[in-house]
Structure formats: C-alpha cells, structure tokens
Design brief:
This protein is of the alpha/beta class and 332 residues long. 43% of the residues lie in helices and 20% in strands. It has 11 helices and 12 strands.
Length: 332
C-alpha cells in the first residue's frame, strides 16, 4: 500500500512537471506565433503602422502570440532579425522591399517557417507567400485628384528612395495627373530615407518653391515633413499607404491607400480558419481587391475635393478594373 501511495505521488509530480515545466508555458504551446519584421520603424502612421494594425487584429481576434521587430533602416540587421524571428515563430512577416536579399538567402534554409513577404516578391521559394500591391493604380487616382485641384499647373511628389517600388507610385501619379490635365507639370525628388521628417520637409519646400501647390508624400515617416511644409506654405499634400487626412485635415486632401494590415490579417486568417497556405505564389492586391484605393478621411473632416471630382475618380476606378485604362508600372 505504501509503495502504491509513493508511486501515485511520483506520477502526480511528473504530471505537474510536464504541464508547467521547461520550455514554453502550457498556454503558449497552442498559440500561433507571428512576428512582423519591419525594415524601418513603427510610428510612421503609414506603411509600418498599418502592418502592425493587422497584427494587433490577429492578437485580438485569434489570440496569436504577436511580436514586432524594427530594423530602423539598418541594412546590417535585415537578415539577423529575420533569423531571430524565424527561430521563435510559425509565421514571419517581412515588411518592406528591402528584405529581398535576406529572404532569398534565408528562407530556403528554414523550410518549416512560413514567410510572408510584403511589398515585393521572391519567386520560386515554397515557404514564401508574396504580397505585392498595385500602388501605381491607387497613385493614378491621387494624381488625377492633384491635377484637378492644382491652381498652378504644377504638382509634385517626395519619394523615400529612388527604386522600383517608389517609382511605381510616381509613374501612376504622373499618368493620372496627365489624364486629368495633359498640360500639367509633374515634378519629384527623393529624400533618401523613410525615417527623417526634416529631410522630407526640405524636399517638399524645394517643390513648393518651384511652383507646385500639391505634393504627394511617398516616404513613410519622412512624409511628416511634407505635411509640415504644406502647412507652412499654405499648400496641399497627399498622404500614403494609410488614410492620413486626420494628421492635418486642412492640408491633406486625400491619401493613396495600401491596406497592408488587412492583407496580412487575411493571409493568416485563411491559414487559421481553413489551413490555406499558398507558399511560392504571388498575390497582387489591386483596385479590384479593394485593398488599394483612395481615401478622403472622415466625412466630418474638411473636404477640399468636390463631390464631382470624387464621382469622376469613382468612374476611373471602374475603367481601371475593367481594363479600359491600363496604368503604367515599374514592376514586373
């Protein structure tokens, strides 16, 4: 009898050890771990914050274990932080075209990790699901609005860096502006960073000084400087990636929207709900998906763009979706 009692005690202790012992806690074992790695930093009220909003929805609605790692535009950290994330996560979401080299090398070496690549594509790797955006289509719309609103006949854009992604915005913006007014002059420059509002302000002031009265900020946190320059010079600006009108509703007339957070949320939700995972493929979010478009802020905010112009833009969306208007692109 004594032996049986001792054996029972030992088994009970072992059960406790297995339930609450080494490694992850029992609750954490069943959670899907999702880590977002951003090339820049949070607080841009645009691209990276949108990605984080999608993660927060996953945490709230599905109870995932969600984390964010910021690289702060330090190229030496891109691969290191992806490795750190992959070692502890089921899904790693790389947010930013800057991760192309690092993902191309790393992902094939870690086939059990599901990578989601946002804003670019690494083709032919089975454990990467690529999300690209037709930002050229959304930029066509804000370019049209800019040309319709301009009183000087000159509109501008400040890009973060001179590369295919930013230039895809610019070619769409220019084409849309010229669709509205063939005589419009479109000017642009590059800040060389997504993290420096002072540099964005400097670039925007150069465009306003050259006669532009509306400037499209395509530069993440750097774009805050564009909005400041517009306010100081009594001009207008256009936001990017998120509906940014709330930042300065008297200055920002509209925004070109890429619903980064919603596209991340949908991809992981499909896996949670249906087990769906399409690694090795490219999904392009365009006007027809509703994940790219134009935003005018809340209805209660000042609306510089008239209902008539908004109706014209709505008609243009239909023509782009139907293929009647083909928007130029720098992307393959």
């Amino acid at each position: 009898m004594v032996f049986k009692r001792i054996l029972a005690i030992i088994l009970a202790v072992l059960c406790v050890v297995f339930a609450f012992g080494c490694g992850k806690d029992n609750e954490g074992d069943d959670k899907l771990v999702v880590t977002i790695v951003v090339a820049g930093g949070l607080g841009d009220r645009s691209f990276y914050d949108s990605a984080n909003a999608g993660l927060q929805r996953l945490i709230e609605e599905y109870g995932v274990d969600g984390r964010v790692i910021e690289c702060k535009e330090d190229a030496s950290m891109y691969q290191i932080q992806l490795v750190n994330a992959a070692e502890e996560s089921d899904f790693v979401v790389a947010v930013g075209w800057q991760f192309w080299d690092a993902l191309s090398e790393l992902a094939p070496q870690m086939p059990d990790v599901k990578f989601i690549y946002v804003d670019e594509a690494v083709e032919g790797v089975d454990n990467i699901f690529n999300i690209k955006y037709a930002q050229n289509e959304g930029s066509f719309l804000v370019g049209y609005a800019a040309a319709k609103m301009s009183k000087t006949g000159k509109v501008g854009a400040v890009g973060g860096m001179d590369g295919d992604t930013i230039n895809d915005f610019i070619v769409g913006y220019k084409q849309g502006a010229e669709y509205a007014n063939p005589d419009i002059e479109v000017m642009w420059n590059y800040a060389g960073t997504y993290e420096d509002p002072a540099k964005g302000k400097e670039c925007a002031l150069a465009l306003y000084d050259s006669g532009c009265d509306i400037v499209f900020a395509i530069a993440g946190k750097t774009g805050d400087g564009v909005f400041n320059a517009a306010a100081e010079t009594n001009n207008y600006a256009i936001g990017v990636d998120s509906d940014q009108k709330y930042i300065n509703p008297d200055v920002i007339i509209c925004s070109m929207i890429k619903q980064v957070g919603n596209s991340i949320f949908k991809t992981i939700e499909d896996f949670i709900e249906e087990g769906k995972w399409e690694g090795g493929t490219i999904w392009t979010a365009n006007l027809s998906t509703g994940l790219v478009g134009i935003g005018y802020g809340e209805e209660t905010a000042p609306q510089q763009i008239s209902d008539e112009i908004k109706a014209e833009i709505k008609a243009i969306i239909g023509k782009i979706v139907a293929g009647e208007i083909v928007v130029e692109t720098t992307r393959k």
